Amino acid sequence: MGWVEAIQKSIDYIEENLVDNSLSIEKIAKVTNSSVYHFQRTFFLLTNMTVSDYIRKRRLTLAAEELLTSNHKIIDLSYKYGYETPEAFTKAFRKQHGVTPTDARKQKGHLQSYNRLVIQIHVKGAEPMQYKIVEKDAFQVVGVKRTYNCKTGENTFGIPQFWDDVHKDGTNDLLIKLGNGQIPDILGVCTVEEHQKDEGLMDYWIAVTYNGEVPDGLLSYTVPASKWVIFEVHGPMPHAMQDAWKKIYSEWFPSNTYRPTGTAELEVYTDDDPTAPDCYSEIWIPIK
């Protein structure tokens, strides 16, 4: 099953079980035969929202429709759509629609509707992706890391903050001095340990390639030997990098026979001005 087909299958499953309060990301990921981490990450790259956000928005859309077309009590609708109390339902409803359930039933104000997603692949021949495939032995990186919850989308805002922090506290400068030049740039390394996969967790490293004793205050990680597909990324950060990840999963993988191995993935940042329109960076993905 390809990534796009798997995500569409997950959406179909979500839609069939929106009023099932036992619906969980773990169950949805199982439908796609992937770990929670890889399912959640791919879903976000293809849809620009987390699975939890999609479920919440769709449930509140259906709840609003029922308010207008039925006589069901608000308390009953709150339980039906997964809220433990009417107060929690009202708070979430107001946040999405801008009005309370009571006012919505009285047709006061406008409602915000989120339609069922349909994943489509668009062929964009005018925008070719520059890439190469290389094989590389295992190598060591040293740096700092933080753990993020992909179920909540914590990684999407946490990682940019992480980069800000290492620039402010001098860690970035320290790492640049340490790098041995095997990959002559600073790296963002995405790793998922076996025990993290079904929890939707990932580790993100800011690191450099380095051999030898690990300096105090830093950690080390061995990136396994792999066949890599290396994509060129052109443009200012962070948008160019984010857009490239989305294109890789929505355009490149669906049209190629390669699949990610699930081991460490790299973002390679050069010393170009990150705000420059011609800033150059790379994405490395291990493939099989």
TrEMBL record:
Keyword set for this entry? Answer: DNA-binding, Transcription, Transcription regulation
Annotated membrane-spanning segments are none
Per the database record, which ranges form the HTH araC/xylS-type domain?
A: 8-107
Question: Under which name does UniProt file this protein?
Answer: AraC family transcriptional regulator
Domain of life of the native organism: Bacteria
Q: Which GO terms describe its molecular function?
A: DNA-binding transcription factor activity; sequence-specific DNA binding
- The source organism is Ureibacillus endophyticus
